[in-house]
Amino acid sequence: MRLTHMHRHWQAWMAWVQRRHVTRNAGRFSMSDRPPVQIGTPAQVIAGISALFAALGCLAAFPVVRGEMARAQNSRITMATILSTYDGRLIDGAHVAFTTAAGRRVEAQVASSRFRDMRVGTTVKIRYAPSTPAHTAVDSEESSAERLAMPGAFWAMAIAFGIGS
Fold first, then answer.
1. For residues 16 and 84, what is the distance between their CA atoms, to the nearest angstrom?
2. pLDDT of 66 over the 80 cut
3. C-alpha to C-alpha distance for 111 and 95, rounded to whole angstroms
4. Among positive and negative, which fits the CA dihedral 30, 32, 33, 34?
5. Are 125 and 141 in contact (CB under 8 A)?
6. pLDDT tens for residues 34-63?
């Protein structure tokens, strides 16, 4: 491979910078003088990574818990019409339309495996918070405990790793 004129100048420049660095820092420090970095035993590393993922899961669970708290404080129950259903790999549910107590028409996604096999146009009962109806609509037949199971599991892991560390 032939080097161009600029490449030769670049190599000469980098060689000069390296020589200058070596002469300026001679005797100051050496990589062999530094103590090795200790990150812990493999078990400690795995526990730390697991705790990090549990903490991230807790952060992801906050919107679920906040929505459930809003519904618990002042929820309304109304009838909704199924516009379409979806059968996802993780979550099943339906796209529904309903009218709030204030008379506003709202469309929302409601995650519930009960809606998976229902036909479009079927009327179902849902529960929502009047402050944010589109974001808090849930199946009224599903209990709060079922919706809070996953956030609760993340919090339990985070607490367990916090105590174990």
1. 70
2. no
3. 9
4. positive
5. yes
6. 677 777 788 888 877 877 877 777 777 777
The residue type at 51: A
- Which residue ranges make up each domain of the chain? 42-164
**C-beta separation of 138 from 113 below 8 A:** no
Question: pLDDT at position 97, please?
Answer: 92
Cβ–Cβ under 8 Å, residues 67 and 147: no
pTM of the model as a whole: 0.47
Q: What is the pLDDT of residues 139-153, one digit of tens each?
A: 766 655 555 666 667
Closest by CA to 128, choosing from 119, 140, 113, 120, is: 140
Rounded to whole angstroms, how far apart are CA atoms 71 and 64? Answer: 11
Q: What distance in Å separates the CA atoms of residue 106 and residue 127, rounded to the nearest whole number?
A: 13
